[in-house]
Amino acid sequence: MKYSRLTKEQFEELHPEFVNFLAAQQIDKNEWDKLKEEKPEVAEQELDVFSDLIWEGVLTKAQYLEHYSKNHIFLFGFDEQSINTIVIKALQQDIDLLTQEGLQWLSEAVFTAEVEVKHGGRDFGADRNVEIFDIIRQGAILSDGVLYSQFKEMLKL
After folding, report:
1. Full-model pTM
2. Quick one: how far is CA 77 from the chain centroid?
């Protein structure tokens, strides 16, 4: 497996797509039930292949990720070749950027000495999607890029 198996909830959400995936392999419901019963290892492989297919599609389309921690916000922007990062750090230790109050504080303090903003970038290595997936595994979430774009504009990047 290249990525990770989808969760039960994700499979439930993608049920129509999974049915189409099986149908493309000429596996109907009866055959799927039989496969799960008689050859569970083959059924497991089908789940893994489908999961990788879904992840590959999501990661190929991914343009932005965000990762929040108590004192940091990491904003990632991607194109085909490179990854760009904006790191926002609250220097005041009692601020928690995981709370609404912390985010409110950030919006008011962003241009003060209490907030450090850095940016950087680099080219992707051999596999863009694997690198994006690794960031997601560390806790990042897909984003619409609004916050990234706002900070990019503020920093004149």
Report:
1. 0.86
2. 12
Alpha helices, H only, 62-156: 100-109, 128-137, 146-154
The DSSP bridge partners found for residue 116 are 89
The CB-side HSE value for 94 (13 A sphere, CA atoms) comes to 0
Residue from 56, 53, 57, 59 nearest 22 by CA: 53
CA nearest 95: which of 87, 84, 80, 107? 107
Which amino acid makes up residue 28? D
Could you give the strand order of the β-sheet that contains 115-123, starting from the edge strand earlier in sequence? 115-123, 82-90, 72-78, 64-68, 141-142
CA distances for 39 relative to 22, 43, 85, 91, angstroms: 15, 7, 45, 56
CA distance 71 to 64: 20
Structure tokens at 107: 């919006």
pLDDT digits (tens, 9 = 90+) for 21-40: 999 999 999 999 999 999 99
